[in-house]
Design goal:
The protein is mainly alpha-helical. It has one domain. It contains 14 helices and 4 strands.
Length: about 375
């Protein structure tokens, strides 16, 4: 694997995603994959096509097929699993499938990479700080269960944050950047190429998805991005026999992880199903505090970026700097949730923000 292939993978995925998104937009109207705002959870006000994820998947696949020269069972099984979720996403964006059915199909996609690709979380950092053993090797059955849980959870976590124009695509691009840097440092060049292709697709889609959005990625895109980030993180980081092998992907994917975990805990404590959609996600809270869509998205971009830098520093054994950055992010996240816990009435926006926010706002998460 050479660096030229990696660069070309990024460029080609960007070009093909950017070029095919308008075509996907027209196709969405033909097949009826249009999101019509019908509840208060949604921020947008007008019908918007929502299978933009097809363009993301297409650009990614073209780049990978063209420039990847290592067709191992891990890569093939990863693409097969991604294809399963892509098909599921298109059907869901057209028909709105039952959550239980989607959950089962996500488990099947995870099983594909676990069983046929032998991609597993077999080593984690030892949670016992007093132990002389820096890591723990998981038994085979537990390794399978943990890996499936990780893939399905991250897949849904990225889907959950797909709530404002450009949020999921931008955050996924930032997480992909962190993934690429870490993969290269671990000499996982195939993972780096896949990460660059994923990054290029996200950037190619953003011009159409940023506020005001012309098209949403829908479950087609959000579940694909979540799945790919989850699987690549397992291949690129969890298999490293290092004390920080577990902490690095947790930090890299920290924003969707925190948001999904907090949302599920909040719903369970209130007596609701953890999978029932609501308007309590972090982006909703920031938006309801008075920030415009663009401001909210840029704040979350910054948080994701800091978490990504923290993961890179930690991977390079720079613990002190990583911990300082992490503390800053955690303090902000806790403050945002505390300040926004009762702010579910949108403050009147300024004229400028009102012009930007009216009739826009992606909310396909969950």
């Amino acid at each position: 694997m050479n660096y030229a292939n990696m660069i070309f993978a990024f460029v080609i995925s960007f070009i093909f995603t950017f070029a095919t998104t308008p075509l996907v937009k027209r196709f969405a109207y033909v097949i009826g994959a249009v999101d019509i705002p019908k509840d208060k959870r949604r921020v947008h006000k007008k019908p918007t096509p929502r299978i933009g994820g097809l363009a993301i998947i297409f650009g990614f696949l073209v780049a990978v097929i063209s420039f990847n020269d290592t067709w191992s069972k891990e890569v093939v099984s990863t693409l097969v699993g991604a294809g399963i979720l892509g098909i599921l996403g298109v059907i869901d964006d057209c028909k709105e499938l039952d959550a239980k059915l989607k959950f089962v199909v996500q488990i099947v996609a995870a099983l594909v990479v676990v069983i046929f690709g032998d991609i597993r979380i077999s080593v984690i950092s030892n949670p016992n700080i007093f132990s002389v053993e820096p890591y723990v090797i998981l038994p085979s059955w537990l390794s399978v269960c943990v890996t499936i849980f990780w893939i399905v959870f991250i897949t849904n976590a990225v889907n959950f944050i797909d709530g404002l124009d450009g949020l999921a695509a931008g955050v996924s691009a930032i997480m992909s950047i962190s993934l690429v840097f870490i993969a290269i440092s671990y000499h996982e060049f195939t993972i780096a190429l896949l990460g660059l292709a994923l990054m290029g697709s996200c950037f190619g889609f953003l011009p159409y998805n940023f506020n005001p959005a012309k098209i949403f990625m829908g479950d087609t895109g959000s579940t694909f991005l979540g799945y790919m980030l989850a699987v690549l993180s397992v291949q690129g980081m969890f298999k490293s026999y290092a004390v920080i092998s577990f902490a690095v992907p947790l930090l890299m994917l920290g924003l969707p992880l925190f948001d999904a975990l907090f949302a599920m805990i909040r719903r369970v404590l209130s007596g609701k199903s953890p999978m029932v959609a609501d308007r309590g996600h972090l982006h909703h809270r920031l938006y309801d505090m008075g920030f415009s869509q663009k401001q909210t998205v840029f704040i979350l971009y910054a948080i994701s970026g800091v978490l990504g830098i923290t993961a890179i520093l930690l991977a390079e054994q720079r613990f002190l700097r990583a911990m300082l950055l992490l503390m800053c992010v955690l303090i902000f996240l806790l403050m945002a949730n505390m300040m926004g816990k009762n702010s579910f009435v949108r403050k009147p926006p300024s004229k400028e923000n009102k012009d930007n926010d009216n009739n826009t706002g992606e909310d396909q998460g969950e």
